[in-house]
């Protein structure tokens, strides 16, 4: 049931993409604002309490709902799995940006590609070269693929029913919404959310990076992962980008023009300068990695069935 739930949710999301902003992000933003208004006094312990209330209770509630539906009929639980995965997982949550940037670069419309990249990342790239645009789009796509698909799928498999998918999606949202805020009035409220997601994502990040390595250039991916990931400020992203860049044979990181400044960044990956061809290769890498993960899940299920 786990494997079929994942496959059907992915197919459904490809056929009918979810308007994730209106259906998922806007309600979560409203909930976040209410929790901040109620609990935030700048102290970390109150941020921890708010996180536990929403993430832990949401996870337990989802597991309980799945159990009750299973007791009613397994098909109800199966439909619940698919529905929750459809809300929490999918390539199409952000892939339209990547697709449109890729097309713009293919057509030679650099200004259009810069504009789309700015919408995606929330910054200005009016001075970025075509290679920088392709490089940043690949970086964003690798991280987004992990957080929108691989990370969600991992916890869906580990915890009862779709409760793991809910936990990962909620933890990720509050890590981004609270954990990345640095304004003084917000204080330490988001510190626990940031650290909790780092712990939750520790294993999934490494499994995703391993999948990239297996389906790409394995030796280069592992070499870049081991030698370059420590150079990047965000360790989770560094593991994904260094392994992904090595697997693709493309250089990521490096200085970029962003919001009117030159931002110095260490080099990740190795090989050629990024371009539209490497963007196409990125799509293939991600899909191959997903197929490997689904195949391994199928083998585990078959082994359990035979052993039982």
Question: How confident overall, as mean pLDDT?
Answer: 92
Helix and strand element order? HHHHHHHHHHHHEEEEH
Strand proportion:
under 5%
Widest sheet: strand ordering: 1-4
Continuous helix count: 13
Sheet of most strands? 2 strands, antiparallel
Total count of domains: 1
The amount of helix comes to over 70%
Please give the alpha-carbon distance between the first and last residues.
16 Å
Give unreliable regions as ranges. Answer: none
Brief descriptors of the model:
308 residues, mainly alpha, two-stranded antiparallel sheet, 4% strand
Explain what the structure shows.
Helix 7 (130-158) packs across helix 8 (163-177). The protein has one domain. It has helices at residues 2-15, 20-39, 44-72, 74-88, 95-106, 110-121, 130-158, 163-177, 191-200, 202-215, 218-228, 235-248, 276-307, and strands at residues 251-253, 256-258, 261-263, 267-269. Strands 1-4 form a two-stranded antiparallel ribbon. A two-stranded antiparallel ribbon has the order 2-3. The chain is mostly helical. The chain is globular. The longest helix has 32 residues, at 276-307.
Quick structural summary:
With 308 residues, the chain is mainly alpha-helical.
Task: Furnish the topology, listing elements before pairings.
Elements: H1 2-15, H2 20-39, H3 44-72, H4 74-88, H5 95-106, H6 110-121, H7 130-158, H8 163-177, H9 191-200, H10 202-215, H11 218-228, H12 235-248, E1 251-253, E2 256-258, E3 261-263, E4 267-269, H13 276-307
């Amino acid at each position: 049931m786990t494997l079929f739930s994942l496959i059907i949710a992915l197919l459904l999301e490809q056929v009918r993409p979810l308007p994730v902003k209106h259906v998922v992000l806007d309600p979560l933003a409203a909930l976040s604002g209410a929790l901040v208004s109620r609990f935030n006094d700048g102290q970390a312990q109150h941020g921890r309490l708010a996180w536990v209330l929403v993430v832990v209770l949401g996870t337990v509630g989802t597991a309980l709902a799945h159990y009750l539906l299973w007791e009613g009929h397994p098909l109800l639980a199966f439909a619940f799995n698919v529905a929750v995965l459809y809300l929490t997982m999918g390539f199409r949550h952000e892939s339209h940006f990547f697709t449109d940037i890729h097309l713009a670069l293919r057509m030679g419309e650099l200004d259009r590609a810069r504009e789309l990249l700015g919408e995606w990342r929330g910054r200005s790239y009016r001075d970025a070269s075509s290679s920088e645009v392709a490089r940043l789009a690949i970086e964003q796509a690798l991280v987004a693929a992990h957080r929108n698909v691989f990370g969600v799928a991992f916890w869906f498999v580990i915890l009862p029913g779709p409760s793991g998918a809910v936990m990962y999606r909620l933890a990720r949202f509050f890590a981004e919404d609270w954990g990345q805020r640095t304004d003084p009035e917000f204080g330490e409220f988001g510190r626990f959310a940031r650290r909790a997601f780092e712990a939750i994502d520790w294993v999934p990040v490494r499994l995703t990076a391993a999948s990239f390595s297996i389906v790409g250039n394995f030796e280069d991916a592992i070499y870049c992962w081991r030698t370059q990931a420590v150079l990047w400020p965000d360790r989770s992203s560094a593991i994904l980008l260094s392994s992904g860049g090595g697997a693709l044979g493309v250089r990521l990181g490096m200085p970029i023009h962003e919001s009117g400044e030159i931002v110095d960044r260490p080099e990740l990956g190795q090989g050629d300068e990024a371009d539209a061809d490497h963007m196409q290769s990125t799509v293939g890498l991600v899909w191959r990695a997903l197929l490997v993960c689904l195949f391994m899940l199928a083998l585990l299920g078959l082994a359990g069935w035979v052993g039982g």
